[in-house]
Amino acid sequence: xxxxxxxxxxxxxxxxxxxxxxxxxxxxxxxxxxxxxxxxxxxxxxxxxxxxxxxxxxxxxxxxxxxxxxxxxxxxxxxxxxxxxxxxxxxxxxxxxxxxxxxxxxxxxxxxxxxxxxxxxxxxxxxxxxxxxxxxxxxxxxxxxxxxxxxxxxxxxxxxxxxxxxxxxxxxxxxxxxxxxxxxxxxxxxxxxxxxxxxxxxxxxxxxxxxxxxxxxxxxxxxxxxxxxxxxxxxxxxxxxxxxxxxxxxxx
Length: 252
Fold this sequence. Notes:
Elements lengths: L3 H5 L4 H13 L4 H8 L3 H13 L3 E6 L2 E6 L4 H33 L5 E6 H10 L1 H4 L5 E7 L5 H17 L2 E6 L5 H8 L4 E5 L8 E6 L2 E6 L5 E6 L1 H17 L4
Parallel strand pairs: 4-5, 5-6
Antiparallel strand pairs: 1-2, 3-9, 4-7, 7-8, 8-9
Helix pairs in contact: 2-3, 2-4
């Protein structure tokens, strides 16, 4: 008998064998059913349970023994009708869920772009993006500048401050405590720059830099690493952290 259609609508091979065997046997106990279907006794009960849930097998108990019987073949159509109704219900629930998820997605912060830069050169590249977005009179901030930096970093920042002053861009810098006071004095000698100590004791090679919709998380380690994130909500969040520390800091 061609049984492909039964497989197509969701019946397993074991379920098909058991159902056809029951049609041939009529009301029967497990023993004859195992022999007729070729399904092992260890598996037949699970198969019968699934067929019962589908509405295609029923049983009665006579003298403490279960007798199983196949439902009329038209019950297959009832099974399909039930599946169709369940599918329709699930689709309606999915439609409601999709609407909610779209609202969540709409309200969630969206990262337009995230880029990773490696090495000292990468850190310089990320910093110099400020000149592409900032206009005269605008500023950037640095939070958590590490106390120790290799000499190449100091030389770069000193040259860059000259460029920054010519561009009319301001900056506010919060250095980690323990930084050589001469470094802060050096930065403060440049126009439009205010360098201070962060008002809490913290030691980490990581720093945060921000302006407009840009946030940069940097690691000024031997290799050097910077992650640039373009997202206004994230940038605003880190700016609030910076402003809280800045309010507690003291001008040198």
